[in-house]
């Protein structure tokens, strides 16, 4: 299958732009109450326990909950969610599944067809890729409390 050069350039541009804004560690996230998973800064809430590594935050809870836990500044956090998930289809339409936690999402400019061409952590809905709504975007675009997204 021969790919259109314009489409190839668009895909490469999307990947470069996404890579430029990715987080790698929890400390890369601007909000102190967020964790970095899959290149996205996700809102999190403190949970009981002190830590030096993310492994210290795991409990005997389900594996799904532990997947969304991490250590930041010696405090254990878990991604804020209203529902645990096994994939995007487990979440509401306005959400994506990251680390087994449904999180609010926002439309990107990328077009898709049943998940094709959406980046990791994104979901295809109605021909458009959706990605997690990151805390910095929440603070820049909305003055309402963060909990209103969940």
From TrEMBL:
Pfam families: DUF7107 (PF23416). Residues 22-77, 85-130 form the DUF7107 domain. Keywords: Signal. Residues 1-21 form the signal peptide. The keyword Signal applies. Transmembrane segments: none annotated. The keyword Signal applies. This is DUF7107 domain-containing protein.
């Amino acid at each position: 299958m021969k790919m259109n050069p314009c489409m190839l350039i668009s895909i490469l541009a999307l990947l470069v732009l996404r890579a430029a804004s990715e987080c790698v560690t929890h400390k890369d996230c601007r909000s102190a109450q967020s964790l970095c998973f899959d290149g996205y800064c996700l809102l999190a809430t403190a949970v009981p326990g002190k830590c030096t590594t993310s492994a210290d935050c795991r409990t005997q809870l389900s594996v799904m909950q532990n997947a969304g836990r991490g250590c930041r500044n010696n405090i254990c956090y878990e991604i804020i969610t209203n529902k645990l998930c096994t994939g995007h289809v487990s979440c509401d339409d306005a959400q994506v599944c990251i680390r087994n936690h449904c999180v609010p999402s926002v439309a990107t400019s990328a077009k898709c067809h049943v998940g094709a061409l959406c980046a990791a952590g994104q979901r295809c809905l109605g021909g458009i890729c959706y990605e997690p709504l990151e805390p910095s975007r929440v603070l820049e675009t909305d003055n309402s409390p963060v909990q209103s997204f969940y």
